[in-house]
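Retro notes
What went well: the complex prediction finally ran end to end.
Inputs used:
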Amino acid sequence: MEKTMRSSLPDRELLSIYRKMLLCREFEEGCAEQYTKGHITGFLHLYSGQEAVAAGATAALSNEDYILSAYREHAQAIMRGADPRRVMAELFGKATGICKGKGGSMHLFDPSINFMGGYAIVGGQFPIAVGLAFAASYREEERIAACFFGDGAVNQGNFHEALNWARLWELPVLFVCENNFYGIGTELHRSSALTSIHKRTCGYDIASEKVDGMDVLAVYRAVKHAAELIRDLKRPYLIEAITYRFRGHSMADPAKYRSAAEHEMWKARDPIPAFASRLLAEHIATTAELDQIRKECIEKVAESVKFAEDSPWPEDKELWEDIYV
Amino acid sequence: MSEMTYRDAINLALKEEMRRDPSVVILGEDVALYEGSFKVTRGILAEFGEERIRDTPISENTIVGVSIGAAMGGIRPVAELMTVNFALLAMDQIINHMAKIRYMFGGQITLPMVIRAPGGGGSQLGAQHSQSLETYFMHCPGIYVVVPSTPADAKGLLKAAIRDDNPVMFLEHEGLYNSKGEVSDDPDEVITFGKAKLVREGTDVSIIAWSRMTLTALQAAEELDKEGISCEIVDLRTLTPLDTETIINSAKKTGRAVIIEECCGQAGLGGDIAYRIHHNCFETLLAPVTRVSGLNVPMPYSRKLEKLCIPQVQTVNNAVRNLIYEKAKEL
């Protein structure tokens, strides 16, 4: 039976999670606007709808734990602590960007907060996460490598190689599948013989579970539990979070392969209003307080856009920097 | 100095660097218990234990990916790919990840890692086990490509590769493992990347070579010397960075240049080097630059056919004679 939220986390942290989810939603919607204006170009994959996964997971992990993700990774970076102004500047391609404007939307990276990258080759982050976990294990650090990926990535050979390797070497890797049911326009059942992704780990003797990825507290509890097991048993673990993206695969995708009814059904389960309702119902916050948080998030995004707009372009000589040490 | 094989020189470099730096870790297929498919890692498990040398599953892309992650996390991995042909299974991690991570992440991370991979033809291993793929890696900025031809170079360059903070493809030639030479005993002696070696001085023609083709060039030069043709030989040692200056200086001095490459000629490195020489030495060249390349065919198994695919002393000699006697023609 569902416990109260307070039994999981203090009020202050619950509100912090709410703030992060809302900030990322506002950030993504701000990105969409800037893309439409032509300020952000290239590929842009937005996270709107999936916030409960990143919010629950980042709240449950230690800040020492590594986080890696795919190309829909703005939220993981910001929720881990990346400066939204520098993320926005990166998307604008400005010198003040988190990767000096050389990475773009799909390649955010900030080792100062152990955010070890957004990767744009589907499944490319799997072996790198295993390697980071190996380094942590070799150096006798307590870190976990948390590897986020979509349902589209599980049919890459990398996924299977990484699961096998992580279990074989007894490495602290948390695999977090954000199952939003679509790999671009191909629905899961059209690409996967077994659509229960968490069941795939039985071939590698790795424990796993499925969790409601629209419920931030459910994700939080699952990741907290998984992280404890990983640290205690020195073994990997996989969580399949069932979620949904409210937008297309990228800004170039009108998502015509999904029915309006399906979209509406999931919109009704939007994790942010759902969480807000519970915060109000359990008297953790008042409507006025939540409104204030929303206002601050909107301001933060506006400030980020302004920062990006006002920032200088990279100098030409930067082109030749950072290829080699 | 001690005389040892190319194989033992590599083995010694690995051991010396592992003794020097506890963050150096070897991983690869059959590297530990089996001591390597080519026995390059002999004795390392016994000396350093299984924490420092790790057998892996047959998952080449993940061998490279794990090495990338390990390098990000503070280890200096030296991965062995059993042969360079298997690197093709790892090209996603090598090209899309290893080569680009530092740049696309704005220089915030270094990848101090080495991938050792033996390759080359001449042992009748057939089409899938006889390739020379150095240009594949050269075509991608962000990777160093090292191609030693002697035991001394193999040791000094591998030590440099392990100490370097950039990712390095260290391409050994299977046909050189048993070759012998004098090797430095100094554990601190390393060979700087990007410095080609003038292995023979001459006046009539410059031969540009690397890896095993350097030995072919030396044999050719001995024979040509008897005919009164004086060959200068430049062994490139590293392809990225490429020592264009030494190549150009030699070509300017002799006025003629032949590039010998075991890899297929089509879109090969020889064409790139020929461009550099023509562009910089046009005024002083006595003849067009020429190439002796691997043939553009998948490597056949039959000894008779295989030999035709790989530049031989005789083909090099003929190319040089053609140049000298101004009968250069397209090969």
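What we learned: The CA atoms of residues 120 and 128 of chain B lie 11 Å apart.
What to try next: split runs per interface for comparison.
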